[in-house]
Amino acid sequence: MEFYRLTAHELVELLDSGRVQGDELLLQLKERIDTVDPEVKAYVRPGSPVEVQPALAEKSTHTPLKGIPISIKDNICTEGVLTECCSRILEGFKPPYDATVIRKLREAGALILTRKTNMDEFAFGSSTENSCFGATSNPWDLRRVPGGSSGGSAASVAADEAIAALGSDTGGSIRQPASFCGVVGLKPTYGRVSRYGLIAFASSLDQIGPLTKDVRDCALIMQTIAGFDPKDSTSVDIPVPDYCASLEAGINGLTIGIPRQYFVKGIDPQVKSVVEEAIAELKSLGAVCKEVSLPHTEFAVPVYYIIATAEASSNLARFDGVQYGLRAPLKNTQNSPMIDMYKSTRGAGFGEEAKRRILLGTFSLSHGYYDAYYLRALKVRTLIKQDFDAAFKECDCIVTPTSPTAAFGIGEKMEDPLQMYLSDIYTISANLSGIPALSVPCGFTKEGLPVGMQLMAKPFAEETLFRCAYAYEQATVWHKSKPSLGAS
Amino acid sequence: MEYEIVVGLEVHVQLNTRTKAFCGCSTDFGSAPNSQVCPVCLGLPGALPVLNRTALEYAIKVGLALNCRIQEFTKFDRKHYYYPDLPKNYQISQYDLPVAKKGFLNIEIDGAIKPIGITRVHLEEDAGKLIHKEGVSLVDFNRTGIPLLEIVSEPDIRSPLEAYAYLSTLKSVIEYLEVSDCDMEKGSLRCDANISVRPKGETKLGVKTELKNMNSFKGVKDALEYEGIRQQALLQQNEKIVQETRLWDLRAGKTIAMRTKEEAKDYRYFPDPDLPPFIISAERINELKAALPELPEAKKDRLVSDYGISRYDAGVLVADKRGAFFAEECLKAYPEKDKKPMVNWLIGPLLSEANARNIGIADLSIPGGTQELVKLVSLVAEGKISHLSAKSVLADSLSGGVPATRIIEEKNLIQISDSAALEAAADEAIKENEKSAQDFRQGKTGALMFLVGQVMRKTGGRANPKVAQEILKRRLSNER
């Protein structure tokens, strides 16, 4: 039997009852990676072996993820294991500590894969093409992108190269690749999951979240990684509910809001009709649908690119060649050796998109421009958040497409950053307003590409998302479809 | 034309919290390089700051002691600049909402009290230290992240002496709060100065220079002295003053241009998204206010009114907190109503003994405790022991670890002031030195001193010379 094709909750039972041996599962998974990863390239550092960071299970008696191999995005710190954000500037960086989420997973018995998953450099992108290790392919069509920036994590789960994965989401970086790859992906409420150990892109927007084969796995992993962390001042001290307990509660009577601004121009007609069918299914499951308005939606992308780049320019200032990562050889210009070190290291270490965003962010924080750009963007961000506050007075859950299109071709949008930025148009608002949002597979285009439905709820209402997504998933077959890979 | 200097001071004070401002690393001074570091203070990718609440409360205390308004809503901002001792290439600091602002500190010069405005007090993290040697530069991050208070004064200071008084008073206030060692040599207190010169009577500020690299209060005073004269000379020659940063060169005794303001950096301040704003409740502020210790100025006023000592003496006593407590303990224990003898001993012999050991008077550890000191001073005041021998008793007591009263007893130093006891000795002296007695009778007053000396000799030096003199005079005149 191909154990690597199973979900985490299935494997936990099988491992526990001894019907599956941990060694056997790991061996199978490594073989699977060896077979399909040369095509998918979900993992970084091609050719290097996949090992696991051992569980820290002996420290706790509660091990809900015992023996489950999980793949990790290259921007989440793992002690002693290369973590490079798919950037040359972090070449050779092995963090001396585990991110809080990694520690929690290890304490829950999970096995952390040591080869990290591919991503856009520093999570700057929506296609996983901006990586110093090269692009990842979409398991459903190798000529297409897996989405991004957590494209490697999404592809690893879709291609059965990991049982589940962690990604990070700053403007859609978990949900959009989940949608493109036909898996479940959750961006938790801002503050629900500790960011300690996540190499920051935009600190006020970043959240770590799971990418999984089904909704129950998503709830299971969230159960482990969520919660207050005294090491992260932005994490929130609210008890974590039992996510799995309410999964099967159904959605009879749940009010679902459909924002009219999300179904207008720019959306692919096939995506639109697939999501509309999904909404019809939710109705048949007892949900009450009503139209809601999010009037400031059109400002989300510009506001996001000001705030996210401003924070990124500051967060990336530390990569200077002094303590860790790349130190490029001096160019012996007329500058002082110190300035020379900064310039040559940062010049050689950052890719095009990283440089573009650092410049954008530096500009909008500069003296004389701050009020017009950064401060104004913060104000509009508040308006966007207020849109959601108002909408959630009328509904429990908002449903939209996750992305306006299905997976696009590799190279298709690389020359046009603006088109690339627009592929996050439906996901960005959840980061700006801090609310939780989940993408669940809801069908396929005629070309056989997965389409994702996005569910959003009010802060800390992840339970509602799981309940709704689970009801939909169990009523449909989409999550059972697998890409045909490595079929000899 | 007469000129005046206008000075504002920017003081950085390292807070003596046990751990750093945003992580749990120790703040101990003098450990091996890079031994007190963690992912947070090293600015490693993924690490996040968590505010040390004690540092924030210390900052509030200083704000309150400096009569500032405390912000109930405060936040931290990132200040960006590239330097290898700054691991994140930004410093967590405070920009537009400092912990405290709009206060004042009273300084006193020759009995005149002058308030110096405090613009703001804010909390930030310290940077590391660069060590340059043999063509390489090394970084020590032990200091990185130690909480630092920046205290900015208004340009209210008008002389180098006022600057000196401001710094000493500020240091003493902070020491009373016990939130910093204020040791300029260890770098736990640093001071930069902004100075400009203008014709007296002019209300507009002149072009200022910023002075750095002073490593003592005297250095600040000297640098301001020099810079004031330099600027005044330029103005008198109708030359322009360049707005620039200048370094104080201690050895050359002058300031040297470092960089002009044109190269001034854009720090791109913005709110640190890793640290949500802090709300400090009015209740907490009131609690901290109520818990403030008595500060030097109040203590000085009280010593004057409670013990009837002079403002000058009180000023000397309160400068050092532990010394002030020690002094008050002595004043309280001293039984006489007139406290002058006790004060004179505190700021006289005791202070010089302490200075000789490079410690404060509270650290002298007097054998037998303050009671012994009080007894010693009382004996002097009562005329039971001479001032001179009391001073040597104190010195012996401190060096030998023996209580003063035991030394007095052992050396039999109590003066004999009892007339009856001295009369016999006086009669004997007169009898044995008839010639001198005769001289005195004939008006040679100098002869009396010889006879007093004889009485002293007969009593082993213990006779109270005043009493002996009285008796001799009386005897010799009664004979007539």
Word description of this protein:
The complex is a heterodimer of chains A (488) and B (480). Chain A is an alpha/beta fold. Chain A has one domain: Amidase signature (AS) enzymes, CATH 3.90.1300.10. Helix content of chain A is 34%, strand content 11%. Chain A contains 14 helices and eleven strands. Chain A has helices at residues 8-16, 22-40, 100-107, 151-158, 175-181, 215-225, 269-284, 300-315, 337-349, 352-365, 371-391, 417-422, 428-433, 462-475; strands at residues 52-53, 69-72, 111-113, 164-169, 184-187, 207-212, 255-259, 288-292, 397-401, 437-444, 450-456. Chain A has an eleven-stranded mixed sheet with strand order 1-3-2-4-6-5-10-11-9-7-8, sandwiched between helices. Helices cover 40% and strands 21% of the residues of chain B. Chain B is built from 15 helices and 16 strands. In chain B, strand 8 and strand 9 form a beta hairpin. In chain B, 40% of the residues are buried. Chain B has 480 residues and is α+β, with helices and mostly antiparallel strands. Chain B folds into three domains: 3-287, no CATH class; 294-410, no CATH class; 419-478, Arc Repressor Mutant, subunit A, CATH 1.10.10. The model of chain B has no long low-confidence stretch (mean pLDDT 91). The A-B interface holds A 76-77, 83, 85, 90, 93, 95-97, 99, 195-200, 202-204, 230-234, 310-311, 313-314, 317-320, 322-324, 338, 342, 362, 365-367, 370, 374 and B 39, 42-51, 78, 80, 82, 84, 87-90, 139, 266, 268, 270, 273-276.
